[in-house]
Structures are given as C-alpha cells and as structure tokens.
C-alpha cells in the first residue's frame, strides 16, 4: 500500500514539473513577441491568447487535470504543448534575427507557420477536457475563449507589408538598377519600422543578409541564398554604401572563365604556357616535370607523343596577361572607395587588397593621384589596427612615387613613425619608408630635423629584429652627409658615421666635430668606433694645422680621449702623436694653454702606458731622451706657474715610469738647485710639484735625495723640516716627509739638522692624529694615510741603531704606545714601516742591555717562586718592582731610554701582522720578532714569550702562504724557536707537512732540510745536505 502511494506521488511530481515548464514556456513566448517589426497586430493577438493560457495554467490544479485524464494522457498533452510553444518561440527568434528586408519577403511564410501552430495549440488544450473538470464557471469560460481565439485567428499580412514586399520583389527582378526607386523604397521600409534609412541601417542590413546567405549556402539552400544575394544588390543599388568588389569580380570571372587559364597539371594560373605536339597547353615547368618522370603521352588526351618539343603559346599568354591586368584593375577600382570607408571591416579588406596591388608601380601612382596619402597617414596617427597595412602602402608610395615623396613627409608620416619607434613599436615597413624617403638629400634634411628622429633610429641599431636594425643603419647612412646629423648620432652613442665623416672632412669640419665631441659624455662602448687608426691619425694632424681653432679643439679632444686606456694605446701606436705635442710645448710664443694641455696629454699618455709597451712605442722613447728631458727642465724655469706645474707633473710621470728619465733629472745640478729653490717660493702648486719631482727621483735610489751643494743643502733640509712641521697642506707635509725619509743616510750634517729641527715632533703629531681618527674623533682620508706612511718612513731614520743621538729623542716623546697601536689600525704600508721601526728600536735595546743579562737571570727565579704564593700579598716596594720586571729582559729594559717589545705589548700585534697578505708586512714583523732572539742569555724566555703569543701558528701560516722573502725569514725564526721549544701533537704534524712541501722550493730547500733535521724528521745523511 505504501509503495502505491509512493508511485502516485512520483507521477504527480513529474506532471507538476511539466506543468510548470509549459507555464514558463508560455511566458517566454509572450516576451519574444513584444518587439516585432512587421505584423505587430497579429503577433500581439497571438501573444494575448498565449498570455491568457499562462494565467489559466497558473490557476488550474494539475491534480484535477490528472484526475480527469489520468497520468499518461495528461503527460502526453503537456509535452505536446511544451513542444508547440518552443517551436513558436524558435520561429519568432529566427524571424527577429533576420534583416528587415528578409523578414519583409518572408512574412507570408512565417504567418502561415504561426497559423498552423495556433490551431495545433488549440487542439491540444481541447484534449484536456477542462470543461468536464470541477472548476469555476469563469475558468471554463476562459478556456473556451482561448480555444476559439486560437482556432479562428486570421493570418493575413497587412496591406502595407504586402505592398512593400511586392515593390522589393519587383525591383530586384529588374535587370538594371534604379537608384532613385531603390532609395525611395528603402525610405518606405524605414518609415514602416520607425528607423532612418541612413548608412548605418544599410550596413546593418547588409551584415545580417550576408550572414543569412552564408547559412543558406551551408545548408545547400541555393534558392534562398540567391534571393538574399538579390536583396544585397538592392541595398548596394542605393549607393548609400559602396559595393564590395566580390560581386563585380565574380561577374567578370563569369564573363571570362579562368579555368582555361589554369594548367591542367598543377592547377595554377599559367605564367609561361607552352603547347605540346597534340595541341594541349600546360605550364612549362609542370609539363617538363611530367616528361622527366618518363611519361610520353599527353596528360589530357592520352595520345602517344612523337616528340616532347614545347612551343610557347603566345596567344594564351597574352590572354592570361590581359585577364590578370583587367582583374587587378577591377580590384583596384573596388578597393579605392573602401580606403575612405568609415566601416573598419570594409576599410581593412580594401587595405589588404591595395597593398598587394601597390607592389606594381602603376597602382601606386594612381593611389597618389587619388589623394590617399593623407588617409594612410591618418591611420598611423590614430594608431588604428590596420596601421601595418597602411605602412605597407606608404612604403610602396615612397618606393615608386618620386613626385609624391615630399607629400608623404608633409602629411606627417615621418613624425608618426618616429612616435611609434619611441613607444617601442618598430615595424620593418616603417623603417623601410624612412629608408626610401631619405635616399633624396632634400628629404633627408627634413627627416633628420624631425625631433628625436636620429636618437630613436640609433636606438633601433640594437633592435631584436635584424631587418629593422639593418634598415635603421642604412637610414643613418643616408643622413650622414650632414655634419649636424652625424653629431646627433654621436650624441646618441653611434659613432661610425661620425668617424667616417671626420676622416673625409676638411680641417674646419674636423674642428667643429671635435668641438662637439668634447661636449659629449663618452662611455666605454662608444669608444670602440673612435679607435679607428685613420681617425686617430687625422685627429693628431689637427695639432699641426695653421688654424688656432683646429689646434685648440684637437688638444681638448685628445685630452678627453686619453682617459680611456684603449685610446692611450691607439695614440701611442701612431708615431705622429708625440712630435706635435712636443712642438707645442717647445714653442715659447704660443698660447700658454696649449703648452699646458700638451704637457698634460703627454703625462696622461705616459701614465696610461704599460711596462711592456715602453720599448714598443717610438713616442715613449722620444719623451725620455736627454734632449727632451733637458728641454722640459729648461722650460720650467722660464714658464708661467700653470705651465710649470704641468711640466713638473710630466717629469714626475716620466721619472716614475723610466729609470733613464729619473737619472737624467738627478744628474742635472742646475735643475736640482732650481727645484729646491722652488720650495721657498710663494707659488703653492709649483712648490708641491717640485717636491713631488724630488721625491720621485729619490725614492728607492741608493744615493737617496740629490741635494744641492752647501749652503743650499742645509737650507733645503731646513725648508723640508719646516714644511713638515708647519704647512697647512697635508699633501705638502706628506711629500716633505717622504723626501726626508730618502735623505742620504750617512751624512752627519743632515743628522745634526734633523736633531735640532721639529721633524720628530711633527712625526709625533701625525701619529697622534691617527690615534684620534681611530678613536672616531675624525674620519681619515687618503691624504692622511699617505702622510702617516711617509712620516713613519721618516721616523726610520730616527730609529736607526747607529744614530744614538736621534734614537734617544724617540724615547723622550713616548712614541712607543702609539706605534704599537698602528700595528692594529694602520694601512699595510704603515704597518710595515712601523714594524721596521720597532725592529730598529728593539735591536738598539738588545745591544744596550747585552751586558746586563745577568739581571734578568737573577730576577726570573723570584718571579717563578711568586707563582706558588698567589694568595699571599706583599707590601714590599722591592717586591712590586720585581713583579713588574720584563719576563724576557728582567730589569735591564726598565730604563726610559730603552724599548722592549714585551713591555710595550707589541708581541701580539706583531704576530697578528704575520697574517697580512700585502708584501713586506709579514717580513717586517718577523724582523722585529727576531730582535728578541739576539741575546743568547734571554733566548729561552724570549722564545716562550713568542710561543705564548701564538707566534708558532702564525709563523707556520707564513711558511704556508707567504712570499719567498717572508718564508726565508720565517724559517730562520722558526729554527731558533725550535732550539728552546719542543713541539708535539697536531701543531708538530702541521709543521712537518708544511716543511715537507717547502722541500720542493729550490731557494728554500737547504734551510728547510736543516729545520727538519732539527725536528728529527730528516737524518743527517739525507741527500738534502
């Protein structure tokens, strides 16, 4: 029983769903008929009946209908009604989607379909037998009214609709086109549907008709498709919009069938038709391939050919060419109005056709005559989607129409193209347009003067598309006749044309181009083009010109270029470079600025040269000749201050680079006297560079500073001392300190002057300043560092063990703590010189206390005993003194005049300096540590002090990674330490491994073998001995 109830419920639910669907479909139908264009009265009546049906369905109960009819008949009836309403909706939708003309002609057919559907719907509703249901009288009456309305509905087209349809049919059946009648009829149609008969209406109708026609053709409904084509021709006959070329060309093709022009073998239009002996014609290449395959018969008639001879079919070729020409003319005429159309689709098709036609010069000329240049440019300006096709058309115009090239520029085409380039849109055709236009010099002038044109073209040289970059280069080539344009190219970073024009130009042209180049910012990449040998030679030749402007520009440009190492090489490689520069320096009556710039250039050339090039270049050999060195020295005495400075700078550079030049300056007594006399002058720059030259010829020379004879010698030394002590110029003080450090070492007079001077106090002040910088009170700079390094070099003279009168002065100033701090804070050179100074001081101490070694021996037992009584305090003054004794020298180094590395806490900083990578630092630190091991009586304690400061580990690091001199000194120190220290464990293993590796070094092998023997690793009979 429960199961039966469930089945009934399911059936009722299904019927209810169908009922709702029919109600909804009725509502959809009513909505679709609300905006009909033609026969509104009929559709409104139909819609009213269906709307009443929807209301009726909403009021009825599906269960009552089911009770009257049972489930199956009710379901069938509902499904039928749903299907009928859907068909009605589809007819309405199709009707509405068509063009107005198509609807007008097909209104009778649509109305007939709707009449049949109305009758079917009435029958379906009648089958429900609603009159027999237990419903209200009102609903029964409503049902009968709906059935009667649908059954008796009249389906006749309105008189106006019939009349319009008849007129359209009549007009499209006429052989000719009556434009006036077509326009009037179109106006009537527009009025009947409430719209204006303008171009927009016609274009919309044409689009709908074309779509319908394609659908009919796809469904093979040729009659319907033909009728739609006629309707399209009716609209075109109004000439409100232009007719596309398709119909006209199709008609022409119908008149002249092209099948006879196609090769039967390759199916392509023949361009070289030939006839075979049977009389049939083919494309030459196609029939030749046929014969090459071994065929001997005609492909058409299959006749066996007696010969494969081919005869040109001139008549057929003429017909084909005539047909092609006529075909292109038709296409051209059809495309012309499309170019100016406001319909983008028509315009696009016309452009596509036109760019193909314009490959032939005759059509480009016609396009220009039609005034379409401005239209193409307008497409570029508005950045329309068809701008690429417009560019192609402009390219053909620029290529084939010489008389209209200027018009292209005047229309703004170049400005549009440049703007596109600027946005990163670089089409090959755009660059091609510029290339064609720029071929004429007069037009190139206009192109080059357009703002940003040249810089943008230069940017395209690196474009990803090689076609674009190559064409851009060719455009720039066309513009390169103009100096101003070439300078613009160089300003944008492209120098090839600049170099080419410079090499071809006159002196005046080169002068103006050089002046422009001087103002440019040059980069490494742009210099490559300027490395051209001819360019360099022509630039140098400017210095020999009779034109002052030419010489001045040449000097300034060369000075700018020598900032680049590669340009230095190119200039030195040209033998013509140095002579004119020397000539400008030696001419006394010339512009002083030329003397200065020529000297500055020579200095930069020498500075930029490499050691390997000194013998390679003739100019460098000339500069260091005795004649030219003497010339420079003589000119210094007679020149103005600025020229003196430049000449002194040049001599400093030559002295730093060439020993020959340095020796020539040193041996010129007059020059030396002049240099030192300059130190007392009132020209600061001259004074500074004179000191730099003195330092240059003195540094590292065995004889030291070449001093003038007395009394000028004493004056010179006092002047240097005063500069170091009192000058506010740090560079002057630094250079003076450097010269003092190079003064002859064995001159007692010099020592006496220095002893009485304020030099040592000045050195002390410099070191104190460094201490302030290290504390953060003042930031150091390069000049400060240089001053400290040279001051420390000068200090070495005061720390020499052989100069006790100077040595004692150091102790009085309490420099020791400051020097120890430099080991941790100074530059590598400062550390090296400080370690050397400490080595001198320590060696002096060792010599002075060697006779007091016994004091150390007596002190150490008491110190060792005190270790066991750390908890016992001792108030004895003697005991305190004993505890403060040096662990190496005891009381012997307690004097104020002595210096001890241990008491100064210098051991650890020195050991840390052994890890310095800069050459000389580790060696100087080793030298200082060695001074502790010179006194045999203190060796055990000195060794222990070094070991406790991690000295062994640091020495092994030097042996592993140091340079050869440092390794040699480290081996000596390590050997002495081993005499009083026993190593074992990992440290011994590491030492053994490093030493064994050093056996491979020929310079160190013997020393290393001795150390390994001392360690018990090598036997005495080893071959290393």
TrEMBL record:
Its EC number(s): 2.3.2.27
A Pfam family of this chain: U-box
SUPFAM superfamilies the UniProt entry points to: ARM repeat, RING/U-box
RING-type domain segment(s): 263-302
Keywords on record: Coiled coil, Metal-binding, Repeat, Transferase, Zinc, Zinc-finger
Catalytic activity: S-ubiquitinyl-[E2 ubiquitin-conjugating enzyme]-L-cysteine + [acceptor protein]-L-lysine = [E2 ubiquitin-conjugating enzyme]-L-cysteine + N(6)-ubiquitinyl-[acceptor protein]-L-lysine
Coiled-coil residues: 199-229
Name assigned to this protein: RING-type E3 ubiquitin transferase
Originating species: Vitis rotundifolia (Muscadine grape)
């Amino acid at each position: 029983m429960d199961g039966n109830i469930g089945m009934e419920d399911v059936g009722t639910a299904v019927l209810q769903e169908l009922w709702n669907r029919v109600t909804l479909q009725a509502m959809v139908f009513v909505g679709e008929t609300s905006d009909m264009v033609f026969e509104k009265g009929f559709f409104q009546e139909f819609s009213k009946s269906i709307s009443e049906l929807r209301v009726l369905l909403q009021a009825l109960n599906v269960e009552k209908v089911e009770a009257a009819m049972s489930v199956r008949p009710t379901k069938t009836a509902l499904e039928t009604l749903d299907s009928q309403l859907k068909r009605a909706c589809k007819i309405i939708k199709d009707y509405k989607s068509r063009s107005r003309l198509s609807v007008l002609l097909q209104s009778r057919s649509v109305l007939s379909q709707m009449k049949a559907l109305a009758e079917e719907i009435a029958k379906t509703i009648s089958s429900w037998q609603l009159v027999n249901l237990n419903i209200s009288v009102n609903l029964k009456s409503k049902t009968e009214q709906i059935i009667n309305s649908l059954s008796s509905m009249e389906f006749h087209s309105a008189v106006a609709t019939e009349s319009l349809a008849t007129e359209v049919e009549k007009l499209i059946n006429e052989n000719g086109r009556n434009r006036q009648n077509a326009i009037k009829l179109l106006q009537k149609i527009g009025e009947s549907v409430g719209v204006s008969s303008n171009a927009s209406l016609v274009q919309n109708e044409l689009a709908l008709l074309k779509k319908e026609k394609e659908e009919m053709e796809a469904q093979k409904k040729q009659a319907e498709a033909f009728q739609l084509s006629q309707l399209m021709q009716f609209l075109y006959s109004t000439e409100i919009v232009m007719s596309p070329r398709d119909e006209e060309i199709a008609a022409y093709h119908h008149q002249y069938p092209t099948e006879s022009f196609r090769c039967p073998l390759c199916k392509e239009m023949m361009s070289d038709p030939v006839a075979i002996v049977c009389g049939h014609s083919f494309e030459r290449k196609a029939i030749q391939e046929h014969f090459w395959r071994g065929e001997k018969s005609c492909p058409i008639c299959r006749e066996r050919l007696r010969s494969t001879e081919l005869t040109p079919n001139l008549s057929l070729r003429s017909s084909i060419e005539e047909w092609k020409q006529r075909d292109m003319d038709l296409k051209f005429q059809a495309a012309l109005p499309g170019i100016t159309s406001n319909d983008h689709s028509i315009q696009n098709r016309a452009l596509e056709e036109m760019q193909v036609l314009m490959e032939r010069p005759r059509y480009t000329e016609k396009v220009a005559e039609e005034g379409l240049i401005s239209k193409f440019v307008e497409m570029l300006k508005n950045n329309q989607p068809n701008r690429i096709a417009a560019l192609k058309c402009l390219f053909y115009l620029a290529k084939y129409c010489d008389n209209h090239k200027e018009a292209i520029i005047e229309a703004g085409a170049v400005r549009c193209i440049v703007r596109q380039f600027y946005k990163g849109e670089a089409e090959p055709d755009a660059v091609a347009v510029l290339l064609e236009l720029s071929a004429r010099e007069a037009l190139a002038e206009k192109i080059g003067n357009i703002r940003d044109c040249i810089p943008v073209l230069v940017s395209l040289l690196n474009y990803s598309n090689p076609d674009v970059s190559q064409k851009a280069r060719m455009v720039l080539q066309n513009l390169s006749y103009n100096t101003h344009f070439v300078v613009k190219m160089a300003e944008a970073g492209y120098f090839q044309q600049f170099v080419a024009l410079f090499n071809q130009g006159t002196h005046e042209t080169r002068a103006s181009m050089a002046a422009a180049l001087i103002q440019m910012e040059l980069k490494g990449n742009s210099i490559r083009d300027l490395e051209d040998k001819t360019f360099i030679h022509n630039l140098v030749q400017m210095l020999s010109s009779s034109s002052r402007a030419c010489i001045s520009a040449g000097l300034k440009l060369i000075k700018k270029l020598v900032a680049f190492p590669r340009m230095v090489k190119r200039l030195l490689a040209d033998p013509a470079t140095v002579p004119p520069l020397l000539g400008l320096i030696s001419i006394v009556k010339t512009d002083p600025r030329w003397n200065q710039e020529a000297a500055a250039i020579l200095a930069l050339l020498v500075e930029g040269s490499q050691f390997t090039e000194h013998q390679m270049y003739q100019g460098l050999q000339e500069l260091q000749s005795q004649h030219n060195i003497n010339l420079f020295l003589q000119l210094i005495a007679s020149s103005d201050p600025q020229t003196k400075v430049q000449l002194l700078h040049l001599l400093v550079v030559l002295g730093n680079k060439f020993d020959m030049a340095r020796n020539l300056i040193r041996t010129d007594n007059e020059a030396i006297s002049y240099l030192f006399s300059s130190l007392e002058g009132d020209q600061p720059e001259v004074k500074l560079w004179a000191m730099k030259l003195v330092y240059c010829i003195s540094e590292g020379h065995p004889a030291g500073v070449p001093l003038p004879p007395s009394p000028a010698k004493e004056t010179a030394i006092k002047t240097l001392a005063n500069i170091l002590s009192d000058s506010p110029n740090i560079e002057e003080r630094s250079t003076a300190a450097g010269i003092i450090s190079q003064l002859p070492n064995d001159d007692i007079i010099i020592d006496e002057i220095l002893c009485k001077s304020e030099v040592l106090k000045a050195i002390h002040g410099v070191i104190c300043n460094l201490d302030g910088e290290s504390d953060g009170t003042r930031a150091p700079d390069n000049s400060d560092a240089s001053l400290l390094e040279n001051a420390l070099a000068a200090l070495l003279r005061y720390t020499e063990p052989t100069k006790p009168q100077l040595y004692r002065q150091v102790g009085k100033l309490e420099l020791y703590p400051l020097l120890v701090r430099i080991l941790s804070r100074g530059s590598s050179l400062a550390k090296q010189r400080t370690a050397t100074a400490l080595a001198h001081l320590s060696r002096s101490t060792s010599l002075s206390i060697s006779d007091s070694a016994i004091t150390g021996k007596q002190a150490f037992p008491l110190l060792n005993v005190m270790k066991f009584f750390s908890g016992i305090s001792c108030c004895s003054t003697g005991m305190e003194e004993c505890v403060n004794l040096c662990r190496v020298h005891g009381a012997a180094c307690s004097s104020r005049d002595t210096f001890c590395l241990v008491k100064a806490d210098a051991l650890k900083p020195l050991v840390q300096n052994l890890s310095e990578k800069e050459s000389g630092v580790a060696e100087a630190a080793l030298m200082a540590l060695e001074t502790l091991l010179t006194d045999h009586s203190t060796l055990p304690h000195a060794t222990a002090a070094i070991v406790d400061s991690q000295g062994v580990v640091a020495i092994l690091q030097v042996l592993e990674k140091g340079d050869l001199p440092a390794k040699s000194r480290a081996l000596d120190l390590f050997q002495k330490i081993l005499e009083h220290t026993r190593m074992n464990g990992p440290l011994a293993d590491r030492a053994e491994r490093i030493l064994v590796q050093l056996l491979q070094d020929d310079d160190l092998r013997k020393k290393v073998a001795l150390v390994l023997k001392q360690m018990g690793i090598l036997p005495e009979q080893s071959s290393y001995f």
